[in-house]
Design goal:
4-stranded antiparallel sheet, 7% helix, Tachylectin-2, Chain A
Length: 357
């Protein structure tokens, strides 16, 4: 074989080999695919709960003007009373579940002879059941002294009408500015007491909270009034008011409101007392319960037990930026109160849905 033919032979073999290799060098295989995800392979996310699993309440539970609320339980019905909101002297509403409330009208449609009518000064009722009678302590403008003073009325039913047949106010510390914010309290031994505030801030007098024993029917004062605490902390200025007493174990807790009622800084403090009549000491130098937006200026507190015996605090509060009249309203709020050792604690002021116990 000549040298030229040998070279052609080699080239032919090379072309055959090159042609055989080209498919593997030029073919494009699809990229390797990740296996398709399935529902069982995806991570499971727990959704945020959109509602509570059980009966609940959301504050305000009564979204109307309802200042200085006082709540009692009678059989299976709750009754709440409040400061004057026209046209009522004393508002009264009722509920079976603390959530849905019905307006029952005016619990005190007629004022007594000693009170100035149509003055808009019928304030802060406190109601207690004594056997088959309901006794209401309330505030009205005294004609004789032109001061706010405490009256007492009775009714056969919790919704009223309550009547006050007295010629004079029940308590009227005219030389101390008047008397307001009466709160009835029954001790463990059955004795009755009334707590209140002298309205000294009206006239430049000292402001204090007082207590005095009541007769078994709640219609007569026994003994002499005893001063429990005075306004003496910076956060309380310019006043303290609205006393409310709770007993836990062998200790007594005197709750009260302080600061300006028409501001977001209105708040609740407390003093721990050895007995109903003192001595009392304030363990904090700041509010125990204060604003947490949108709940503003919470105060005017009162305490009650529900059907299961749980302790609640009823109070009023402004909402959001609408603090003060005429834009705002002091609507009815409630929150649970418990004790950790000797300290009262609460989940409030709440504005989101809360489970009912």
């Amino acid at each position: 074989m000549s040298q030229k033919r040998f070279l052609f032979y080699l080239c032919g073999i090379g072309l055959l080999l090159l042609n055989a290799c080209l498919p593997s060098l030029t073919a494009t295989e699809p990229p390797e695919q990740e296996p398709a995800s399935t529902a069982t392979e995806s991570p499971t996310l727990t959704p945020e709960p959109t509602e509570l699993s059980g009966p609940s309440y959301t504050n305000p539970v009564y979204n109307s003007d309802f200042p200085d609320p006082h709540v009692i339980l009678v059989n299976d019905t709750y009754y709440a009373y409040s400061t004057v909101v026209s046209p009522s002297n004393i508002q009264v509403i009722s509920s079976k579940d603390l959530v849905d409330w019905e307006d029952l009208g005016d619990a005190l449609p007629a004022l007594p002879k000693w009170a100035l009518i149509n003055s808009g000064y019928t304030w802060a009722p406190g109601v207690i059941q004594i056997e088959d009678t309901f006794v209401m302590y309330y505030v009205a403008r005294d004609k004789e002294t032109n001061k706010q003073c405490i009256g007492v009325g009775v009714s056969d039913t919790p919704e009223g009408p309550f009547t006050d047949p007295n010629e004079k106010a029940f308590i009227c510390q005219g030389d101390l500015g008047g008397s307001i914010d009466a709160y009835p309290f029954r001790d463990g031994d059955g004795k009755l007491y009334l707590l209140w505030k002298n309205d000294g801030n009206c006239c430049g007098y000292e402001v204090a909270l007082w207590v005095q024993e009541l007769s078994p029917d709640g219609l007569t004062l026994v003994g002499v009034p005893i001063k429990l605490i005075v306004m003496d902390q910076a956060w309380e200025r310019p006043l303290i008011e609205n006393p409310a007493m709770v007993k836990n174990g062998d200790r007594y807790y005197l709750f009260y409101s302080g600061n300006r009622w028409e501001s977001h800084e209105y708040a609740v403090g407390y003093a721990a007392c050895e007995t109903v009549i003192g001595p009392c000491d304030k363990p904090l130098n700041k509010p125990w319960f204060q604003f947490k937006p949108p709940v503003m200026g919470p105060g005017g507190e009162a305490f009650f037990n529900d059907k299961e015996g749980n302790l609640w605090m009823a109070y009023h509060a402004w909402t959001g930026a609408d603090v003060g009249y005429p834009a705002g309203k002091r609507s009815l709020h409630i929150d649970l109160v418990t004790f950790e050792g000797d300290k009262p604690v609460t989940n409030g002021p709440s504005s989101t849905p809360q489970l009912l116990p």
